Amino acid sequence: MTPKEKLVLVGNGMAGVNAVEHLLKLAPDKYEVTIFGTEPHPNYNRILLSYVLSGDSKVEDIVIHPYEWYANNKITLHTNQTVTEIDTTAQTVTSDKGVTVSYDKLILATGSNPFMIPLPGADKEGVMAYRTIRDCEIMIESAKKYKKAIVIGGGLLGLEAARGFLNLGMKVDVVHIGDAIMERQLDYTASKMLQAALEEQGINFLLEKQSAEIIGHKRVTGLKFKDGTVAEADLIVMAVGIRPNVALAKSSGLECNPGIIVNDYLQTSVPNVYAVGECAMHRGIAYGLVAPLYEQGAVLAKHLAGVETGPYEGSVLYTKLKVSGVDVFSGGKFGDEEGTKAIRIHDEFTGVYKKVVIKENKIVGAVLFGDTADGTRLMQMIREETDVSGMAKTSILTDAEGGGGAASGVADMKDDAIICGCNGVTKGTICSAIKEQGLTSVDEVKNCTTASRSCGGCKPLVSDLLAFTLGSSYDKNAVKESICSCTDYTRDEVVEAIREKGLSHVREVMSVLSWKNEEGCSKCRPALNYYLGMVSPETYIDDSTSRFVNERMHANIQKDGTYSVVPRIYGGVTNPTELKRIAEVAEQFKVPTVKFTGGQRLDLLGVKKEDLTAMWEALDMPSGYAYGKALRTVKTCVGETFCRFGTGDSMAVGIELEKRFERLNTPAKVKLAVSGCPRNCAESGIKDLGVVSVDGGWELYAGGNGGVKVRVGDLLTTVKTEQEIIEYAEAYLQYYRETGKYGERTSEWVHRLGIEHIRDVVQNEEERKPLCDRMNQALSVTKDPWKQAIESREIQRDLYEVVELI
């Protein structure tokens, strides 16, 4: 029996271990494998660190290869040990714990180090990088003590860190030197769309800012910029880039510039020594994305196994992932360079942006935002340099020529097409697993192959592969939709459990229902907080830590860190005394901008956080809830009072509706409008509930939306009196509160339930009256949050007072 060769892998990360895994499949008896890892963990998915930070996953959830895998494959694993010396003549490696191992083949997969900006004060307590599980643990512990974080760097890693801080209940600023975030992965349009989506979630961006100094005594208290401004912080995370970790390679005499130089078979300048992953420099490029590193590993594994393989000739870069729940994709060269032409679709109504760049009749790059389903197909066309001269150009973005639906699209893909870019899982691997393991759901595919385990952006393609492989036996609608990855329970099951078991707070729900993540996440915690309040409005105590920043602060945070104050102006109708008071307060607090909103309200922009409660007190007006999942505004026209076409008193009805529902918590924001005649000057047809005066009565329209996804409302009912308007509005809104999913606008809710069903419920007096009674109950306990903050020193201290910078 031929003795096994000795293979040593330095680096227990994703790239190196993936190469070893391939090698073991190709030549299971060829090598005796030893692996050294600096961290005290088995191989884990570094991409999922943000899920650990945000509380969506535990450390054990992101482990790719548990200790049992190493044992089952007879791999000797040395964790918590760093190789400090390589003797390339004797062919041995030695660790910092004094362990020496000889090798016949050596793979260096030492990864990269986070770059730390050499700012004055960078050595202070509370300044750190974000790269490892230990970094996550430090950040989680810090969030228990401190309230404000700054992330320097607007790339993917920085945005993931910022999202994690929000989930941990911290306020966070993202500081970026450029004018657009993720500029390496997205063009300017997609970048700004992503920024707007993340601002909606509560992340504050400070763009075109150059950091000058980290201030504080022993611990960081803020970040000073070169323009002289200062942003306060208890914790600063630098996420500005990585550099290949080549210290060991350099000291061992390997050629580096700046990464470890490798050829097309990942061989270094020293015989029998290979490099793979972020530490390797191939044809002048060091790759930092997972897919290219797995492509390198596949070539290296075949080479070491003695299997014939073509050379690694570099990778066409692409990114397909979710950034805080937002789908983005980019691939190839997507900039507007000389000699290129672009096809663009920019649908502001649905929040979808698509761009394909063509040069010499071949697709060379693409950017997708909001809808990334075509990403894999486009990448295949880019890689294969498909000639598109005979294609209708718009069909490139719509897959119009496929003709066979989703299954037809994946059918055309080759088996080596990468479906899951995060984990490097191909179509062939997924289809084989479906057939051999009898998989029938996306979750089963995820657990078996790791496809869709990371960002989840490839779930639609995995579902298409199930349909393609299983045919008519696959029912993608049969799998119920849980409210988030922390649980298998659906929205309806959670609400039913709250009612039946008498659950009374967020943690109790998670405990009783055996939440997978005991801390919950940014999707389920706000949802549970809403459902508990909806079920028991008179007894439930709102959990402010489970709300997003705007709702906690009762003011909309702006991109420069200031806030927006919108006082309640019922029906958009005001008077000179009220206007004078607003003007005087704006002068008193030096408000730089006063703007009329689309909902006929006055928006005072640029207010400092520490001025909010004093300003609210000076205004002596109720909160306009411009920040909440609640009634925002009731827009009105002048109606019959002044308009010669008016047939109804729209202002009076609008004021009555707004006073009735002004503090009502709802699954998502709600906007109303009342038009005094069918000319519809108040735009009632595109509101969550629109009221239009007609001859002999009023028409009520449901489920309209004038935002990202425009939808004209459906006729709900026609009533004769103003009192009936209130009654039907109560029943409609309460039914939405009780059956809507958290975060679901009425436009989506009406589409899901169907207007006929909602109409039947609201028009049925036996159902309408109980809904109105429950609405009365919900409204009976509401309080003005601005007044609560004015009267509570504790609230002022915790949320609005600024810590003095030392």
UniProtKB/TrEMBL annotation:
Residues 319-385 form the NADH-rubredoxin oxidoreductase C-terminal domain. It comes from the Bacteria. Residues 418-467, 483-532 form the BFD-like [2Fe-2S]-binding domain. Residues 628-768 form the Nitrite/sulphite reductase 4Fe-4S domain. Gene3D superfamilies: 3.30.390.30, 3.90.480.20, BFD-like [2Fe-2S]-binding domain (1.10.10.1100), FAD/NAD(P)-binding domain (3.50.50.60), Sulfite Reductase Hemoprotein, domain 1 (3.30.413.10). Pathway: Nitrogen metabolism; nitrate reduction (assimilation). Pfam families: Fer2_BFD, NIR_SIR, NIR_SIR_ferr, Pyr_redox_2, Rubredoxin_C. Belongs to the nitrite and sulfite reductase 4Fe-4S domain family. This is Nitrite reductase large subunit. The lineage of its organism: Bacteria, Bacillati, Bacillota, Bacilli, Bacillales.
